[in-house]
Design brief:
The protein is an alpha/beta fold. It has a single domain (about 45-270), classed as TIM Barrel, CATH 3.20.20.370. The chain has 9 helices and 12 strands. The protein has helices at about 1-25, 70-75, 80-90, 100-110, 125-140, 160-165, 190-205, 220-230, 265-290; strands at about 45, 55, 60, 75, 95, 110-115, 115-125, 145, 170-175, 210-215, 235, 255. The strands form 4 sheets. Strands 2, 5, 7, 8, 9 and 12 form a 6-stranded parallel sheet that branches. Strand 10 (about 210-215), helix 8 and strand 11 form a beta-alpha-beta unit. It is globular, with a radius of gyration of 22 Å. The protein starts with a helix and ends in an 8-residue tail after the last helix. Bound molecules: zinc ion. Zinc ion binds near residues 122, 180 and 216. The site of zinc ion (ZN) has 5 residues, from strand 7.
């Protein structure tokens, strides 16, 4: 009898320890929760969202020669690393949004899941189709590619046919201009052509509205953002910054770079930055509510 009690107590403690370890973040390959009335934490919607929008470029293995270039090493995430990152998001139950969903949340004030990220890739490299797309399909995850329309279909970049195949599996395409020029350096007329023509070409090729532009290397100024707005875009993405939050200026939205040498612990920090911001805000709201006579100096 006593033995049974000890075993029961031990297994309860063990169960508690398991549950506590499961609530710790950053675990991959979570075991099934024991069959109790404790369920996994859900992913509730919030109007005070904070969504890390990740920014990639190439997804491939570098040749030994390419690997000597610091720039290429920085731009290129290996397919093995990319798959680990996507698997991490899926196993940790992140909701993977499209940037169109982020756009409608910003513009229409719709709530988004607390634990969410979005994936983007700039320049439309062919490996986005040959290497990244099979991984995206395997895990059922969407991504958005910002195309440079003048190079679509050349030997280094994906083709319109590739784009249509990806589009059929929930991937989206937006503009990264026609020629990848530094927009801030262009005269008004040329700037306007880069914005409008790239938008038109993608829309006519893919039969889907283009409403977002990614600036090159984060090069933009007030003149550029105003032209982007006038050319019919709703969103402009810059490089750098934290998660997207409801008050952000839509023509200077932040993205978080994933580099070639981003280690898993850095990746985890990037993707949890949204939840961290939400928790922090909840904490500070809670604290403020407890403060008597705020601003009275007492
Ligand atoms: Zn680019």
């Amino acid at each position: 009898m006593r033995k049974v009690f000890i075993i029961t107590a031990f297994s309860m403690l063990f169960g508690l320890a398991m549950m506590m370890s499961l609530s710790a973040r950053g675990r991959m390959g979570q075991p099934e929760l024991p069959q109790t009335n404790t369920t996994r934490p859900s992913n509730p919607l919030t109007s005070n969202f904070a969504v890390p929008v990740l920014m990639y470029h190439r997804i491939c293995d570098l040749t030994p020669r390419e690997a000597r270039s610091p720039l290429l090493r920085d731009l290129t995430v290996s397919p093995v690393d990319f798959e680990s990152q996507v698997r991490y998001l899926v196993e940790n139950e992140f909701t993977i949004l499209s940037v169109k969903e982020v756009e409608s949340a910003l513009r229409e004030g719709r709530p988004l899941p607390e634990k969410a990220v979005a994936l983007t890739m700039d320049d439309g490299y062919r490996d986005n189709f040959t290497r990244a797309f099979p991984i995206l399909r395997k895990y059922g995850v969407p991504a958005t590619i910002f195309l440079v329309t003048s190079v679509v279909g050349d030997e280094r970049h994906l083709s319109w046919e590739n784009a249509r195949a990806m589009q059929a599996k929930a991937c989206g395409f937006e503009s990264h201009t026609m020629h990848h020029y530094d927009l801030a350096m262009l005269p008004d007329e040329q700037l306007d052509a880069e914005l409008r023509e790239s938008k038109q070409v993608i829309e006519s090729q893919l039969k889907s509205p283009v409403s977002q532009l990614a600036y090159l290397s984060g090069s933009y100024n007030v003149r550029v953002t105003e032209q982007v707005r006038l050319a019919g875009y709703h969103i402009g993405w810059k490089k750098g910054g934290g998660p997207v939050t409801p008050g952000d200026y839509p023509y200077m939205l932040p993205r978080i770079r994933v580099h070639g040498r981003t280690e898993m612990k850095d990746f985890e920090q990037k993707v949890w930055s949204g939840m961290d911001a939400i928790q922090e805000q909840k904490g500070s709201v809670g604290n403020e509510a407890c403060l008597p006579g705020m601003g009275s100096g007492g």
